[in-house]
Amino acid sequence: MREYDNETLTKVQKAELGILRDFVDLCEKNNLTYFGIAGTGIGAIRHGGFIPWDDDIDVAMPRDDFEHFVDIAKRQYSDKYMIMNGIENENYPLLTTRWMLRGTEFVEEPLKNIKCPLGIFLDIYPLDKIPDDEKLFRKQARKAFIYSKLLILRSIPYPVLGFGGIKAKIVHAICAIVNVCMRILHISKRKLYDKCLEISTMYNKLEKTERIDFLCDTTAYLNIHYISDIYPLKKIKFEDMQINFPNKIEKNLTEAYGDFMKLPPVEKRKNHYPYKLKF
């Protein structure tokens, strides 16, 4: 993690709160379901807002609500915001969707060579049904992991790793070889994105499942939510707002992060410190 100066971090957080405010307003006016997750949940419960060193806001939406959000945002908010995902621009290598503030730039170091516009953003995670049968889910999870990482490697031959030394050099060499092979074979970024989407949504036609998930994260198991843990949603203070969170957000965060109320050591704190930033 690189540290911001206080003025810059405050300015980034203020811009993101403005995006969140418009997002919540859009969702509430159109009866769309959303809720805060991950670091946004930790920040709300532990700090009453942003984690002090954090610089992003994460929200999740069931797939149907997410698709309605994208449609409304593109029709009614396109003068102020831009939707960014692999459908809008095949060079975007992630399965999340960003709602970005036009006229700004926020380019993280890992994405500095990606050829698509990147601005100050709200990170949106579409959640899909996953099967109750654990064997079927793990098969789906393995496929999602493979294709989502291939999508990243298609654009980023040397991804950021959580370790260093000789192990990192070996992994980077393998990643670079995979990148070259995909380019030689003309494997398109859009086809990889479509495959990830196909895998993620393959069980959405099931009438009912116990869980929904964002499969294409660091692991497929980080954002599993039991339906019974989500509803009824509850409001929790986030800075000067009250926003939706899962009813049992504390349980979800504990399962994902352990003792989330304990501050991590400085060396394990994370943010998205930008390679390029423009307000």
UniProtKB/TrEMBL annotation:
Keyword Transmembrane part of the UniProt annotation: yes
One GO BP: glycoprotein metabolic process
Keywords in alphabetical order: Membrane, Transmembrane, Transmembrane helix
Keyword Hydrolase: no
TM region positions: 144-160, 166-185
InterPro entries: LicD/FKTN/FKRP_NTP_transf (IPR007074), LPS_cholinephosphotransferase (IPR052942)
Every LicD/FKTN/FKRP nucleotidyltransferase domain range: 27-258
Family annotation (Pfam families): LicD
Protein name per its UniProtKB record: LicD family protein
Organism: Agathobacter rectalis
